[in-house]
Specification:
The protein is α/β, with parallel strands linked by helices and 317 residues long. 46% of the residues lie in helices and 13% in strands. α10 (239-250) packs antiparallel against α11 (259-273). Residues 191-308 form the DUF1722 domain.
Length: 317
């Protein structure tokens, strides 16, 4: 995974002056921390459908029939931009199917992922999704999509980056030529990471993979697996799940470690469980034992390095 990962981004988050007021919303995390590992593909849906900057602000409006429309201008002289935006969004989404993630601008009537203000006869409610982003997620349901504001949350940031790296590796597998062996090997590499994200979905995806041979089309299986994989990883990894994974890993070293070493590792895992130590503490000790007592299955697990360590995403867990 040496090449940069292709990720879409709202152009204003790249520092481009494309917002309705002629400004931008430069996202420092994207440009200062993620950029060395990611190749960004900026999109401004509003400029793409021919709107200038600066421009009148857009808004989502719920019609009497219950449909959501995208409009601009004052009441009485409004322009309905719904068809233009939907047409652009569908075409552009299909062109961007190679992406491994997308960072969108929060609260935007075109790009917001959640809690976008929607107007109706009773006023407004923050329960909408930007029209471009809604179409993007419909067309590419496996794609990790996240808002700029939510990426200030360390847990959501870590989850998003883990997902784009997983999807990048999986898309490489799809491009290089499918085989049952390659798919099974991929799933094996991700087992511990999947367990950390969702135990219920982990228990469901295992039998699904085991039944691979029942599928007439390997390509159809691979696409369905991608959906299930990314759905599972969309759940944030939790402290109880990480603890479960670490206790499972601990078992691989029992016959190699002294009683004192086993107790030290157990205590460190328990300290993490209680919130005293960060996740990095037990993982660092486990990695030390992995180097000293190599195990072929553990050494291939993406759980121990789901993304470059230099991103420092597990330091606050």
């Amino acid at each position: 995974m040496s090449n940069k990962i292709p990720v879409g981004i709202s152009a204003c988050l790249m520092g481009e002056a494309v917002r309705f007021d002629g400004g931008h919303k430069r996202l420092a995390f994207a440009l200062d921390e993620l950029a060395p590992y990611v190749r960004f593909h900026p999109v401004c849906p509003e400029m793409a459908i021919g709107l200038p900057t600066p421009r009148s602000s857009l808004r989502l409006v719920k019609t009497q029939s219950g449909e959501i429309s995208l409009r601009t201008g004052k009441s009485g002289s409004e322009r309905d931009l719904t068809d233009a935006m939907v047409g652009f969004a569908r075409e552009r989404s299909r062109q961007l199917s190679y992406l491994c993630g997308f960072i969108v601008c929060a609260k935007s009537p075109s790009c917001g992922m959640e809690r976008v203000r929607v107007y109706d006869h009773a006023g407004s409610r923050k329960n909408g999704v930007g029209l471009f982003t809604r179409i993007l997620m419909e067309e590419l349901p496996w794609l990790p999509v996240e808002e700029d504001g939510r990426l200030y949350d360390p847990l959501l940031r870590e989850n998003f980056v883990a997902r784009i790296y997983a999807l990048y590796e999986y898309n490489q597998l799809l491009r290089e030529g499918l085989s049952r062996g390659a798919l099974m090997a991929f799933h094996q590499r991700y087992k511990l990471l999947l367990l950390a994200h969702s135990q219920p979905e982990y228990r469901r995806i295992g039998p699904f993979v085991a039944a691979m041979d029942r599928w007439v089309s390997l390509e159809a299986f691979a696409l369905e697996y991608r959906l299930r994989l990314m759905s599972l990883l969309s759940h944030n990894a939790t402290r109880p799940n990480h603890t479960n994974v670490l206790m499972h890993v601990q078992g691989y070293f029992r016959r190699h470690l002294t009683s004192k070493q086993r107790q030290e590792l157990s205590n460190l895992i328990d300290s993490y469980r209680r919130g005293v130590q960060p996740l990095l503490a037990p993982i660092t000790l486990v990695k030390h034992y992995m180097a000293e007592y190599p195990h072929p299955w553990l050494s291939q697990q993406r759980y121990f390095e789901p993304y470059p360590e230099a991103l420092r995403l597990r330091y606050g867990h």
